[in-house]
Amino acid sequence: MGGPPLRKEKRRNPRKTDWDKYREELHRRLRGGAEGDLETAQGIEELVQALTEAILKSFEAACPLRPVGVTSRPKWPTEIKELQLRARRAQRRAFRTKTEEDWGVKVEAQRQFKRALRKFERDTWRKYCGEMEGMTPTARLVKVLKQDNRVQMGMLKKRDGSFTGTPEEALDLLLQDHFPAEEGGVVEEQVERALADEASIEEAKMYTDGSRMGNKTGMGFLIQVPGEEDVEVSVPLGETPTVYQAEVSILMMNSREADNEREMKNSGDDDPVEKMLTKAGCLNQHYAIQECMAEYKDWRKCQKEVAAFRDCINSSQEKGENVRYVQKNRD
């Protein structure tokens, strides 16, 4: 028969790892030292990623993939296999002689085989479950997924309609969907679409979200369009999506203010956020938060500046300005 040749499955056996070679490979890969800034979260993540990659590459070199042999533990114990052979012999004899006596022997042999097989499967399952009870959730998951290629991730549908082909592509797709890099171009496109002339804006929120790059805080937007799904995007000046802090300063504007901000943006005037803060009399407090973040790189050390900004916004609201402070928690 035609068709592609069967590929022999390959696996890594950690117990056969050449640990001397692993240490040599790891020492060689880390000899020059990884480059990164330990003073920033992004630099720390880059160092961790470089160290993780060096460990994995060294392990793969010391523990190469090997074909899986055909020899394995028998599926059933010897007693059950003997009962199965006895049942098959009795069945062949009963079909050949067609006598009631041989037919009765055949039925009894099959009954004994099935009874022993059910008991074996039941006892095996109970033993497996008993071994799982004392394990931590992580160890239990590893045991369940161990040496089972059927559970590898793959064939996830992308936004363009295509599908992932490898577990690595599937992981990248999950990371992009749940932890987007939030590059400025994509964000600007979403904001432009949400603030389009034909859109009736109900409410727009702008806030600093704690993300940073170059010691500058990031800026976020929440655009609410009546009858459509809310668009919440962030313009973090940091590429690492995990650098989000608990304190968030939010400026809220109604539809009239949002239209004015759109007109100012299109006419090339000053930054609409700075316009709003200047109008509220809180621009200096906002700059104080940025300067504090540039110095300490930690929201928790800038609580005094955040409190001053909050008090200024609340005071501006009491004077009738259409702006207010909202604390928003973000993991």
Automatic annotation (TrEMBL):
Superkingdom field: Eukaryota
Annotated Gene Ontology cellular component terms: mitochondrial intermembrane space
Annotated InterPro entries: Coa4-like
GO biological process terms, semicolon-separated: mitochondrial respiratory chain complex IV assembly
Protein name stated in the entry: Uncharacterized protein
